[in-house]
Input
Amino acid sequence: MELSSPKESFTDLPEESCGSSRNGDGVPPLFIDHNAPRTDAVDLKRIEAAVRVILDAVGEDPDREGLLETPARVARMYAEMFAGLHSDPARHLSKVFTEEYDEIVLVRDISFCSMCEHHLLPFTGKAHIAYLPSGKVVGLSKLARVVEEVARRPQVQERMTQTIADMVEDRLSAKGVAVVCEATHSCMTMRGVRKPGSLCLTSAMRGAFRDDPKSRAEVLGLINREA
Ligand SMILES: Nc1nc2c(ncn2[C@@H]2O[C@H](COP(=O)(O)OP(=O)(O)OP(=O)(O)O)[C@@H](O)[C@H]2O)c(=O)[nH]1
Ligand SMILES: [Zn+2]
Output
């Protein structure tokens, strides 16, 4: 199964295609964040038209003053929420450095906001990423960047968790990878079954964390430890 699921190869994207290299008015930005995913690959005009249809269909007047700018706002919002479809989050893991450290590295409580692919409603929570290095480590912020960008896709939590684990395992050649995500799904809290407070936990274990019960228990103990 293709877990990272970009629709094309992004390795050949020109550098300037990453980040908000221009805004809607064609005015150059103050700076270019080369770490940011693309937000310019989304068809804003088609989203705007669709939002007008939705407003009309629910019985609203898309031409009343308060809603005039709403289709454009929603289009920009989707471009932001789905920017991860147009980038390869694993690129953040390309700058690794050598360090003789072979114990657990864990970054906990990385907040994220993703979109459930069934209802296009947000699921929000925290991701915890641990790995056992094999001579190579990566900047800690890069793990958070991977979470931030993988989250910006329509998906289920299970796939998001596995995608992150596979990227870390692959790029760092880690001896073990553990990813745990915990999230609240709006589609379960604000509609449908309406269960506020319910939490979904998913994990993806690779290498030693999957095969060795002691390593698995150690990393889960660190993830669950009181801060
Ligand atoms: N496994 C999994 N399910 C999810 C996730 N996000 C949303 N869902 C579920 O997707 C399911 C979609 O079920 P359907 O029966 O097709 O849609 P529905 O009639 O809107 O379902 P209800 O939410 O029960 O009202 C629901 O049970 C959601 O809770 C996720 O990340 N992982
Ligand atoms: Zn849902």
Notes: The pocket of guanosine-5'-triphosphate (ligand 1) is lined by residues 116, 118, 156-158, 185, 187-188, 192-193 (CB under 6 Å).
